[in-house]
TrEMBL record:
<comment type="similarity">
    <text>Belongs to the copper/topaquinone oxidase family.</text>
</comment>
<keyword id="KW-0464">Manganese</keyword>
<dbReference type="Pfam" id="PF02728">
    <property type="entry name" value="Cu_amine_oxidN3"/>
</dbReference>
<dbReference type="GO" id="GO:0008131">
    <property type="term" value="F:primary methylamine oxidase activity"/>
</dbReference>
<feature type="modified residue" description="2',4',5'-topaquinone">
    <location>
        <position position="399"/>
    </location>
</feature>
<dbReference type="InterPro" id="IPR000269">
    <property type="entry name" value="Cu_amine_oxidase"/>
</dbReference>
<feature type="region of interest" description="Disordered">
    <location>
        <begin position="673"/>
        <end position="698"/>
    </location>
</feature>
<feature type="domain" description="Copper amine oxidase catalytic">
    <location>
        <begin position="236"/>
        <end position="640"/>
    </location>
</feature>
<keyword id="KW-0801">TPQ</keyword>
<dbReference type="InterPro" id="IPR054157">
    <property type="entry name" value="AGAO-like_N2"/>
</dbReference>
<protein>
    <recommendedName>
        <fullName>Amine oxidase</fullName>
        <ecNumber>1.4.3.-</ecNumber>
    </recommendedName>
</protein>
<dbReference type="GO" id="GO:0048038">
    <property type="term" value="F:quinone binding"/>
</dbReference>
<dbReference type="GO" id="GO:0005507">
    <property type="term" value="F:copper ion binding"/>
</dbReference>
<dbReference type="InterPro" id="IPR049948">
    <property type="entry name" value="Cu_Am_ox_TPQ-bd"/>
</dbReference>
<dbReference type="InterPro" id="IPR015802">
    <property type="entry name" value="Cu_amine_oxidase_N3"/>
</dbReference>
<keyword id="KW-0186">Copper</keyword>
<dbReference type="InterPro" id="IPR015798">
    <property type="entry name" value="Cu_amine_oxidase_C"/>
</dbReference>
Length: 698
């Protein structure tokens, strides 16, 4: 590790822990250091600024209150007048540029920095000023284009002489009939513009669309939909004593869980140093589960063969930056209950701090029955489940993505991605069948596509020395060992090298993947473990040899396992924008050892979406995810000591308005009990919640 002389201690920059989120002072300092070094010109922009995470030894050895650790930023610089792209590492505590290199964006395998907000506006201005585009719009009878929306889109990676090695973007056009109209409902089919952002020119305008622009209303806001229904009664979440979690900086403690909240411009939400307290021994012990967890990449490939959309395959983290596009949850009802928000700071296009207020939401949710048993003639024993929810939403063009991490009282973790927003539509001839797109409204079609996410789990099950196994259920043939034919069992296979750990889910065998610690045993003598339970869905459906398959290698299998490497963070490669392909497939080609070492699990998951009429004009949430559950990690059910709310002061549920079951019944086999909420409906005055609202300001 490089020796560091701290010109500025971390605390002076608003930092108290090596894994804290970037602060505005750090972003401003990094810019000042680069300017002082003469590395910034009038046309220099900042497409991406990320924290440099310190070595694990530094983090794990950090003592609370210590103010002597280095903080560095990974800064990508783009000179917009020439296209020169540089990457610098800047120590904001030492106030020095540690390294800087010019990236070979004009050479194979190419690759460009993520797009910036200002480039979206620049692309639209160039397209709208182009006579070829204006003529194409006029041909469709659209003369007034003041409100027309030009959607800037990453072009993928295809061998075009006038695009290869350049910073280009493509655009499709969507018409607005008036200000505030939903443009996605009025696609201008077949009109594509190719823009060289560095030269500031429209390279080509392609127009092969003869389908009329659909003009039917596609708005979904109250002024267009009409009065809201009145039949749905309020559902208030009441925690009169406040939430059960405790927050100190970015460190969160909730019941047996402890974790640190992180956030950056590319990945969005990051969870660090996740531990679960084991109370079964003589002394409570905080046992590690995950060192770091995030969803660092996703790809949205389209199955449409038309010239308008064959090239579309968005890498929403690497091309657009999920975190930088995070929603401020300040004005919405994305979370329900007594809420704790975390603000985030990223760098804007000019390298200045940009605040995302309330970027991350945290709250508790009731989750039904956790465990229950009834013995005849005795009162039932029932304990309710609860989960801690940590989440954020990002908007990338027409789609919204919510990333939700759930922590349960039994030691389980659930990861859920939520896809909503507006499906990407094109115009069509009404009633004409299309093998690659569904007509979702008269004259409006939406192509089949996939949303394939990749979670990165830097596991630490009872420490960093872990091994990985695969489990499959096995049906046994009838015979001497199975005379009645009812027997089945399971098999475990060690995944000892990277080549063995490129795996796919199998619903027929209930396939799961185990992360074990061979150095620690549970009460029955087995290695402690957590296991990943997938929610199987199709892998990337694009054909072998396709461009998107080369670029989204992570999506071609459900599981990859690699030994930890500091420079292996983004599964599609560090800068997938216009890159010909790289990332995890190249890494595993090294075929490194995975036995008793620091390993990382990469799990690809997500829906394949054949759009339907019910998805229009705005799509109900589509849910997809996976579980990471203890398996022999604990010696028994860790939730035995939960309170019995049926006999505690806080009651479980009301039986009907104005009436409540006064006390729990002694239960027979079919007894039912009900319990009142209680009269106290006050709200913790320190929480971000107002009575009768979603728990958010506004």
């Amino acid at each position: 590790m490089q020796e560091t002389t701290l010109a500025t201690p971390p605390s002076a920059l608003g930092v108290t822990h090596p894994l804290d989120m970037l602060t505005p002072a750090e972003i401003s300092t990094a810019r000042s250091v680069l300017a002082d070094a003469g590395l910034l010109g009038p046309d220099t922009r900042f497409p991406r600024v990320l924290p440099v995470e310190p070595p694990k030894s530094v983090v794990l050895g950090h003592q609370e209150g210590a103010d002597d650790f280095d903080r560095s930023l990974d800064v990508t610089l783009l000179d917009t007048d020439t296209g020169r792209t540089r990457r610098a590492v800047v120590s904001v505590t030492a106030r020095e540029v540690r390294s800087i290199e010019t990236l070979p964006t004009g050479e194979h395998p190419y690759g460009q920095a993520p797009y910036m907000f200002e480039e979206y506006d620049r692309a639209a201005e160039l397209v709208k000023a182009d006579p070829r585009w204006q003529e194409a719009m006029a041909r469709r009878g659209i003369e007034d284009t003041r409100h027309t929306f030009v959607a800037p889109l990453a072009p993928g990676s295809f061998p075009r002489e006038d695009e290869t090695g350049r910073r280009v973007i493509r655009s499709l056009t969507f018409h607005r009939r008036f200000e505030g109209d939903n443009p996605w409902g009025h696609p201008v089919e077949g009109l594509i513009a190719h823009i060289d952002l560095t030269a500031g020119v429209v390279l080509r305008v392609e127009d092969d669309g003869d389908v009329p622009v659909p003009m039917a209303d596609a708005n979904y806001t109250p002024e267009f939909v009409g009065p809201a229904r009145t039949t749905l009664k309020p559902l208030d979440i009441v925690q009169p004593e406040g939430p059960s979690f405790r927050v100190e900086g970015t460190r969160v403690t909730w019941e047996n869980w402890t974790l640190r909240i992180g956030f950056n411009a590319q990945e969005g939400l990051v969870l660090n140093q996740v531990t679960f307290r084991d109370d079964s021994g003589e002394q409570p012990e905080d046992r590690s589960v995950l060192y770091r967890a995030s969803v660092p990449e996703m790809v949205v490939p389209y199955g449409d063969t038309t010239n308008t959309r064959f090239w579309i395959s968005y890498f929403d983290a690497g091309e657009y930056l999920l975190g930088k596009n995070a929603n401020s949850l300040k004005l919405g009802c994305d979370c329900l209950g007594v809420i704790r928000y975390f603000d985030a700071f990223v760098a804007d296009d000019e390298g200045h701090p940009m605040e995302i207020p309330h970027a991350v939401c945290m709250h508790e949710e009731d989750y039904g029955v956790l465990w229950k048993h009834t013995e005849f003639g005795e009162a039932p024993q029932v304990r309710r489940s609860r989960r801690l929810v940590v989440s954020y939403f990002a908007t990338i063009g027409n789609y919204e993505y919510g990333f939700f991490w759930y922590f349960y009282l039994d030691g389980s973790i659930q990861v859920e991605a939520k896809a909503t927003g507006i499906v990407f539509a094109g115009a069509c001839e009404p009633g004409k069948p299309n093998r690659h797109a569904n007509e979702i409204a008269p004259g409006v079609q939406a192509p089949v596509h996939q949303h394939l996410f990749c979670a990165r789990l830097d596991v630490a099950v009872d420490g960093l020395q872990n091994s990985v196994q695969e489990e499959n259920l096995v049906t046994l043939p009838m015979g001497e060992d199975n005379p009645y034919g009812n027997a089945f069992t399971w098999s475990r296979t060690d995944l000892t090298r990277e080549s063995e750990a490129v795996r796919d889910a199998n619903t027929e065998t209930g396939r799961k993947w185990f992360v074990t610690n061979p150095h620690r045993r549970n009460a029955v003598g087995e290695p402690t473990a957590y296991h990943l339970i997938p929610m199987p869905g199709p892998r990337l459906l694009a054909a072998e040899g396709s461009s998107v398959r080369r670029r989204a290698q992570f999506a071609t299998h459900h599981l990859w396992v690699t030994p930890f490497a500091e420079d292996e963070r983004f599964p599609a490669g560090d800068m997938p924008n216009q890159h010909t392909g790289g990332g995890i497939g190249d890494w595993v080609a090294q075929d490194r050892d995975l036995t008793d070492t620091d390993v990382v699990l990469w799990h690809s998951f997500g829906p394949t979406h054949i759009p339907r009429t019910e998805d229009w004009p705005v799509m109900p949430v589509d849910y997809y995810g996976f579980w990471f559950k203890p398996y022999g990690f604990l010696d028994r059910n860790p939730a035995l000591d939960l309170p019995d709310w049926s006999t505690a002061g806080g009651r479980c549920c009301g039986t009907e308005v104005g009436r409540a079951d006064p006390a729990p019944a002694v239960a027979g086999p079919h007894a039912v009990t009900g319990h009142d909420h209680g009269a106290d409906r006050s709200v913790d005055p320190g929480a971000d919640r107002a009575p009768g609202t979603c728990g958010c300001e506004g």
